[in-house]
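Order emerges. One example.
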Amino acid sequence: MKISIITVVRNAEKFIESCISSVLTQKYNELEYIIIDGKSEDQTIHLVNKYASKIHKIISEKDQGMYDAMNKGISLASGDVLGILNADDFYPSKTILSQIAQCFMETGADIVYGDLYYVDRQDADKIIRKWQSGEYKPGNFQWGWMPPHPTFYVKRELFEKYGNYKPEYGSAADYELMIRFLYKNQLKAAYLPEVIVKMRSGGISNSSLKNRIKASRADLAAMRVNGLPFPGLAILLKPLRKIPQFFQ
């Protein structure tokens, strides 16, 4: 089973090498690595090119934002399974992709996802929040549940059949895709109870009240377009579900 990993990046010179290293040190041979750079203005592309001999495809050009860049990566990927690893994120061990591949093969799932830890931006050993997602059941989205998108691995054929990310949903484009795949089209998902990704804290959608309101509106639009019932309840419960993650 070939796995394609896509990293989209723009002006992330501080952490991009950590991300790349965590991919290239995976003990999994059937790996394709693609990096889409949004024409960075710092040293990012210089650092990426240091690893050019080990990265299968590197694109550096202006884009229309993160999800447009992800769609570019999807169009270039040839793996059986696709995953996204953002430039600030990294795998916590060298066997993550092997575990994901094994989960796909043992369960026959269309989608595999797992757990995510938020870590301090400067000290990656300091855990801030533990997102332990649990098994997906029909109706979960109505109660504010969602899997961590950075742990969301999908068979490539699903993008061809059900569509890519829709950038018009802004920060909710990944949320919209997950609802579309899991809820609307009822694709088979398997939960891997492992910390698949560690994410450095500091997301844009949570950086201010204004951004949080904008993100909530985008979430609401993503719910409505996919026919999720009682979207107002889900909007209310979605942030509340995060609170226990800070105290686990």
About this structure: Helices lie at 16-24, 44-49, 66-76, 96-107, 156-162, 173-184, 209-225, 231-240. The chain has a mean pLDDT of 94. Residues 181 and 221 are 16 Å apart (CA to CA).
